[in-house]
Amino acid sequence: MYTDVVKKMIERELTVSTAESITGGLISKMITDVDGSSKILKESFVVYSNDSKVSILGVDAGLIDKYGVVSKEVAKDMVVKLKMTTGRDICISTTGNAGPTVCDDKPVGRVYVGINYLDEVKVHELNIKGTREDVRNKTAEFIFENIGSIIK
């Protein structure tokens, strides 16, 4: 399914950048699995630590302190700062808790995905059951389904 979405992005020449935390580069890997993806994926950041979110993306550390790293506010700031930095057509951010324990008072499986498509920002909250791998894979599936519906 994701390959069709990536092919459509390539056909439409939509540039992409990612700022991944919980997915740890999985979104970028899936994009680069498709021939011709170098035409659209311009940069990808794995910002797994809070420090890297602040130092690389410029995420407001106050948001992390106030809401926790696993929050819609941080996911939104990640994708907004990514868009400001890269200017790409599609910017994607991921943050969440894949377990095995509660993080920032957020349950295992709580994920926030930020998508900025042509300057329209949407943040989605997901609650995914399963293993760490399930949480990461289902997050990626959601992202490609969502982008597929946006770019039709």
Q: Which terms summarize this structure?
A:
5-stranded mixed β-sheet; alpha/beta; single chain; 6 helices; 152 residues; Maf protein
How would you explain this protein's 3D organization?
The longest helix has 20 residues, at 132-151. This protein has a five-stranded mixed β-sheet, with helices on both faces. The protein has one domain: CinA-like (Maf protein). The mean pLDDT is 96. With 152 residues, it is an alpha/beta fold. It is globular. It is built from six helices and five strands; from the N terminus they run H-E-H-E-H-H-H-E-E-E-H. The two termini are 13 Å apart.
Radius of gyration: 14 Å
Q: Which CATH class is shown? A: Alpha Beta
Distance between the termini: 13 Å
Question: Which CATH architecture would you pick?
Answer: Alpha-Beta Complex
What is the count of DSSP helices, taking H or I runs of 4+ residues? 6
How many β-strands, per DSSP? 5
Q: What best-fitting shape do the alpha-carbon axes yield?
A: globular
Give the strand line-up of the largest sheet. Answer: 2-1-3-4-5
Helix coverage percent: 40-55%
Low-confidence stretches: none
Count of spatially separate domains = 1
What is the CATH topology descriptor? Maf protein
Estimated structural class: alpha/beta
The CATH H-level homologous superfamily: CinA-like
> How big a fraction of the residues is strand?
15-25%
Most strands sheet: 5 strands, mixed
Q: How do the helices and strands follow one another from N- to C-terminus?
A: HEHEHHHEEEH
Mean pLDDT: 96
